[in-house]
Amino acid sequence: MSRKEKLKRKKSSIKTTFFLAYKNLIASKKTLVIITGVLALSFLSITFFAAIIDGLGYSFEEKSIQTLNGHLLIEPTNDETYIYNSENLIKKIRRLDGVEGVSPRISTSATMQVKDTILASQIYFINPTEEKTATIILDSTIEGTTLTKNDLNSIYIGTNLVEKYANIDDKTKKVDINAGDIIKLKFNNGYEGEFKIKGIYKTGSSFSDGYIFMNEKNYEKIYNISPTFASSILVRLPERGLEEEYIYKLREIGVSNEINPWYTKISKIKQFTASLQITNKITGLIGLLTTFATIYIIIFINVMTKRKQIGILKAIGIKKEIVLGSYVIQSLVYGILGVIAGLLVMKIMMLYFASHPLKMPIGDVYPVLDSVKISIACISIIISALLAGYFPSKKAAEENILDAIFGG
Amino acid sequence: MENKKIIINKKIEPIIKAEHLVRIYDNGIIKTIALKDISLTINKGEFVAIMGPSGSGKSTILHQLGLLDNPTKGNLIIDKENVLNLTEEKRTRFRLEKLGYVFQSYNLIPELSALENVYVTAMALGKEKQEYLDLGTEVLKKVGLSDRINHMPSELSGGQQQRVSIARALVNNPKILFADEPTANLDRDSSNNIITLFRELNKNYGQTIVMVTHELEEGLKADRIIWVKDGLIDKNKKNKK
Fold first, then answer.
1. Rounded distance, CA B73 to CA A13, Å?
2. Minimum CA–CA partner of A306 in chain B
3. Could B95 and A315 be called an inter-chain contact, meaning their C-beta atoms sit closer than 8 Å?
4. A370 within 8 A of A50, measured Cβ to Cβ
5. Cα distances (angstroms) measured from residue A37 to each of A20, A154, A353
6. ipTM of predicted assembly, 2 dp
7. B198: contact with A, CB 8 A cutoff
């Protein structure tokens, strides 16, 4: 056989394969819809739980960065209580290219007395202007107004300390206050004073909403000392992933204190989310196997009902490779359409959850789509569909012609 | 005289030569001898009917001659080729290029229209689009279905479906047309039409036809009847014209 003839035969085989696949697909619209639907659901079962877990982890991390730690948290070395000469340090840090915000905080504790309730709380003295560059705390007001640079004798309190914002099942001690109320605070040095509740904030993260913030200008009055030091300095970077690079840069400009990237501050939570990810991978694998089995059964039934047809095609001289190819193409189309449908439904669900986030103790959780995981899910579904289509089709295509036609 | 001789030679040229075909079905428990020893010759341009009682082996003969099954023993030459030595791929190609089939229950592909059912084998053979469309249309016209080319099988009567099946068998201009009880599912009129069509194809186009039938009336319209009984050829008799 000449090369030209071989090429011609190959071309006609491919053409016939696609022709039969196309005709089968458009003729069996119900089958197409059912299989596509099952594949779409399988795709969602693999990806959506993963997206929630990722969202849970991501929300926690983001809240930790935005409210408690920044991307980098500079802290005193082990033998020190404070970072001294912090003003100079902050100036240097701020001059670093890419640093978006720097906020020093002085941490102390106090007890507040409201009516008969006495409640201890951690207090952060902040520079409101600088805090706004580094965290979202001051933008999270839900009652009253936020702190500003000239506020004195005012506090900004998190909802976790306020009775009226407590969940029904939350039995921890809280105070009955409203924005505008005056309360008594007693600091750890014995200083007692009255402060106005300027605002109540809620970041959505229960880990961040249990503090009291005050303008640093109050510190001198309470402790009789001008604060040229800080308990911690939060540094905000343009995005995640730059932490190591900026630690190096900070070391270069002479920062000798502890510099902790955000992820080391939440290692326990990271451990927890990592465990969830393992669970996630196991359920994903089980989901994938279930998907494979489901697709296999559906395509197997589909192919078996066309057993006679396959026999006829072979009897009239259609190569078994064409028959097999046409069913594999159908499976591929099912897989691709299933993935597209799954992605569409996923997109709709993402839009829904963007406006209706899941309410969790760490705050609002939005599902996060990880492009690598989505790609793996897409490829897995398509490969599952292909394999699930290939094996029953191969079996049917290799069957004896007469058995296929007459049901032997 | 010379011309006449050529014609005579053409008429007696064997296209199928089967020698001592044996077919034993063995399911591991029971061995069933369907064909005991079948030897026959069918000439080019002949219209042969295979007849016999149920279970006599007539369809089995057709399946062996049509390369739909493999004999347990014997030799089979079709169009000068020892077809039992062919690989599966070559047998499939042989069926596509040289053989046409008409089944008892039409066996059309339900997802394809009449025209598509017909031209799918021409497409697989490597014909260009216009060529297989023209061929399909032409052959459907030949079987009297030019007004039904875009109908789906479910929209056609039994007789019409069998005509489509015949058109499908003819589209690649096969050397031999095999028909396995092609009228068994049809009413009398449709049956007569199909047999008349076979007769015309044979007479006008020299189409070699091997047909299995139960109906003597149909067998008598062939050139010859091969009678089969208990897996053996009982009689091999030419019909009177």
1. 33
2. B109
3. yes
4. yes
5. 23, 58, 22
6. 0.89
7. no
